[in-house]
Design a protein that fits this description.
Elements: H1 5-18, H2 21-29, H3 47-54, H4 58-70, E1 74-79, E2 82-87, H5 90-107
Antiparallel strand pairs: 1-2
Helix pairs in contact: 2-3, 3-4
Amino acid sequence: MYVNENAIETMEETLKIAADKTRLKILFSLLDECDSLKDSREIEKCVGDISNQIGASQSLVSHQLKVLKDGDFVKTRKDGTKIYYSLSDEHVREIVRIAYEHVMEKLL
């Protein structure tokens, strides 16, 4: 099987972005709260909402959201002076769900 070296390098960088506890908490906070592992409904939250939910400062959350946005994990929508964040697409939702399910199988 031929493996594209550029694709491997890009995958490495992509996975590095997600490999941070605060960023993972942010990604989970942007999954649907009703059933975060099954429902793929898109939700939006502002920095304050995410900060309160994960117990981190707004400045830390803002910084990590920028990293996630630059890595195409989240997208933004501006409404007046507020910026709302959501997961960029179904691929990101699947990455988070699959990684969580994989880890939980090992922990149980």
